[in-house]
Amino acid sequence: MLPPDPPSLDPEDWDDFRAQSHRMLDDMLDYAQGIRQRPVWQAAPETARAAFARPLPQAPGQLADAHAVFIEQVLPYAVGNVHPGFMGWVHGGGTPVGMLAEMLAAGLNANVGGRNQMPVEVERQIGRWMRELFGFPESSSGVFVTGTSMANLMGVLVARTQTLGVAARQQGLAGAPLVAYTSAGAHGCIAQAMDLSGLGTASLRRIAVNASQQIDVAALAQAIARDRAAGLRPFFIAGTAGTVDTGAIDDLSALADLAAREKLWFHVDGAYGALGMLAPAIAPLLAGIERADSIAFDFHKWGQVPYDAGYLLVRDGAQHMAAFAAPAAYLRREVRGLAGGSPWPCDFGPDLSRGFRALKTWFTLQVHGAERLGAAIDHTCALARYLEQQVEATPELELMAPVTLNIVCFRHRGRPHGDSDAFNGEIVADLHESGIAAPSSTTIDGHLAIRAAIVNHRTRAADIDALVAGVLRFGAARLNGTPYE
Is the distance from CB of 181 to CB of 238 less than 8 angstroms? Predict the structure, then answer.
């Protein structure tokens, strides 16, 4: 005799559930609409942390109760990147359109690792659009991942397989050590990619930058020559389109020329800067990106798609697939039926279980369009130039690096002969705790700088004014011995 069926996890009362669902949606729409009335960030109190230090619940609870905990203990204490005053790290602001698309994707609950289904076709559509945007050939391939850190790792793996041959996937690394190159200003995930790929961080050459914070191409060429003379095997150059500290763009055309001469894989870390191709005023700065062998970038930064939505685009789709495809009996492909439609997204990356990231990206591009997204990107760069002008016109402030895109590094001059680094670090913390603005800090030429990365499509000139006023206010208070409490 069969045991009785257990209760389904679907609602017992669909009408009540529907009403609660509408309340939850309205709360998030209210949050986005009224974001300016909130502080950019505020520290979570111990009561909020305590709400998430409880034992595993055994009995069922109420959806309304869980929602109330979220509204009271989570929503007010997030990182703040939805707010127009958030300028700390390169986080996109998201959109209500993207939020709704994420809800639809969760409702569909599709595993987009593969199989014959329309969610895979949506991802393929994004791939075709990206080929068009970056001028890549029809034979190129693309795949969604968590973010550019993963996409950069995958770029290294594709280049490694292309250099050593597919046999290296079974036999491991052998022969002369492979050497990669990037700028001293590159993101740390490039070194991490060398680590995780088994090549080692010691095999990554960090090349000095010039006065514009771009990789020194002449120094790069010399480093490649030295390594060849030493019996090493150069294989990979990672250029950067928008460095993490200052937003500098390497001379991508010069890097493409050098990579072609030396027969090296040319990869571009375009985490946020690559989507500058959507903006007519920014795209010329990215000349040469169309010649890359691979490009890693995020839709969740300048593309304003909700987290997460990273992407890897590879010029040679066959090489891309050769690095990751892993035939197995349970992944058998057929000509017809649900197992049709090969190749699948799982053939182009390490993940078999994959969410429907393409849907929120498709909705964002379909509803807002390339021109509107490009205009938002242009505007963030215009605001950065406005902030640059404000800094240069204010005697108490000092510009720390050239402004290329949307990142401005500056500092308060503080006291002569005082500890300017500690002084500016405290100003950044004061700004955070006041809720006025949320820049970050970084180090430029050995000195701490206040770093404003303007990414949010909601940010306006008034938000820049508030940031500058806050820096001056908290700087003056500290000079007068009355720091923010």
Answer: yes
Which has the closest alpha carbon to 221: 248, 243, 247, 251? 251
- The answer to whether the CB of 256 falls within 8 A of the CB of 217 is no
Look-up of token digits 């809720």: 435
One-letter amino acid of 26: D
Q: CA 41, CA 163: separation in Å to the nearest integer?
A: 47
CA 416 to chain centre: 38
- Predicted TM-score (pTM) of the model is 0.96
Using only C-alpha atoms, the chain has a radius of gyration, in whole angstroms, of 25
Q: What is the DSSP letter of 277?
A: G
pLDDT digits (tens, 9 = 90+) for 102-137: 999 999 999 999 999 999 999 999 999 999 999 999
Segment 314-348, tens digit of pLDDT: 999 999 999 999 987 667 888 899 889 899 999 99
Report the C-alpha gap between 479 and 121 in whole angstroms.
60
Q: H or E stretch including 120?
A: helix 118-134
Do you know the residue count of the chain?
485
Which residues are registered as beta bridge partners of 144?
Answer: 311
> Could you tell me which residues are beta bridge partners of residue 206?
182
Alpha helix segments (H runs only) across 393-480: 420-434, 461-479
How high does pLDDT run on average in the chain?
96
Place of tokens 């930064």: 301
Helix axes 96-108, 357-392, angle to 10 degrees: 160
Q: Could you tell me which of 269, 48, 21 has the C-alpha nearest to residue 151?
A: 269
* Residue linked to tokens 């997030």: 78
**β-pairing, 447-453 with 407-412?**
antiparallel
In the chain, the largest separation of any two C-alpha atoms, in whole Å, equals 87
Dihedral pair phi/psi, residue 87, rounded to 5°:
-135, 25
Under DSSP, the state recorded for 273 is G
DSSP-derived pairing of the beta strands 178-183 and 86-87 = unpaired
Sign of CA dihedral 110, 115, 121, 125: positive
Determine the Cα–Cα distance for residues 133 and 302; give it in Å rounded to an integer: 15
Residue with the two structure tokens 């569909």: 108
Task: Name all domains of the chain by residue range, CATH numbers in brackets.
Answer: 26-49+62-96+369-485 (3.90.1150.170), 111-355 (3.40.640.10)
pLDDT value of position 485: 65
d(CA 268, CA 293): 8
